[in-house]
Amino acid sequence: MTKISSTLVSILIPCVALITSCNNSKSNNDGNKAVLDTVSLSNKNFALAYQDGDKIVATSIDTMKQISFGGATNPAISPDGNKLAYTLSDSVGNRSIWIADMENKNQGKLQVNSNNYYGAVWSADGNNIAFSIFNKSGIWKIGVIKADNSGYIMLDSTSKINAYAPTWKNDKEIIAHDLENLYTFDLSGKLIDTKPIKTLIGNEYHISSSDNFFYSKDGNKLIFTAASGEVLHELHDMANAVYILDVASKKITPLSQKGMNVPSLFVTADDRIFYSGAEKPYTESKIYVADLNGNIKTVVDKGSNPTGALK
Fold first, then answer.
1. What is the pTM of this model?
2. SS3 breakdown of the chain: % helix, strand, coil, rounded to 5?
3. DSSP string for 31-64
C-alpha cells in the first residue's frame, strides 16, 4: 500500500484484461504461457489476490489457477473469492475503485462522489466495502459502500480527524488510525472508541499512514505492522515487521522473519495472516501466510500487497 505522504504514481487507465492459467507459478520456466480465458470461472476457487508489478493476480491458494488484471493496484478479493476490488489511477493522479466479477468478467466503478478514493477492504460477510477517501477539507476519511454499489457514506465526515488504513474489526465496526490514536467507528459513522497507539504498543514502534491494525476474530489480539530498530542502508529507513499484541497482557511478539522488511499486511476474518516481505537487498518480495501461533508458509515467490478470501 502506498503511503499517504508519498508522490502518487500516475498510471494510464487501460482496459482491464482477464487472463487465466492452469499452470503452477513456477511453470514459466517450462515455457508455458497464460491464455485468454473463454470458460466460466464459477468452479475455480480463488483464495488470494496480490500485486505483481503493474498487474494484479488472483489465484487459488496452491497457485494452480490464476487470472490477472493489468494496470491496477490495491487488490482486495471478496470473502467468497468471487469478486475483486482494485484501484485505477489516471494520468493526473485521480484514483477510483472498481469491482470485477471473476465469473462473468463484468467490471464497474464504485459510485462515489470523489476523484481520490482507493484501497478497498471487504467486510467479512461480503456486504460492505470500506476504503480511504480524501474529503473536500483535505482530510483522509473512511468511505463505506454496499457491495451492490449503493448506499455510500463517509464516516465521521465533519471532524478534523484523519483516518488512515481502514480495516474491519467485525461486520459492524471499522478501525483506522491517525498515527497517534486507534479509532473504532460503527457503520453510522459514530466514533465509538479511541485508544492512544503508544499506550497499546509503546514508544519502540513507529507507525506510518500505510500501516494497518487488525483485530483477531475473538478480539484478544491486535496484528499490526510497524517500523523499529536501526536505519538500514538499503532502505534509508527502519525495516517494517509484523507484530502480534496480546491485548490483555500487552505482550508484543514479532511474527515476520528477522531481517525482513514487510510493507503490507492483511488478516482474514478467520485469522489467517497474509503479508509480503523482502530480505536483503530488499529488491523483491515474497508472500507468506501465517497463523496466530507463528506458523509461517511461503505461498507466492514474487508478489506484494496480498489479500485473502475466507476458507
1. 0.85
2. 5, 45, 50
3. T---EE--S--TT----EEEEETTEEEEE-TTSS
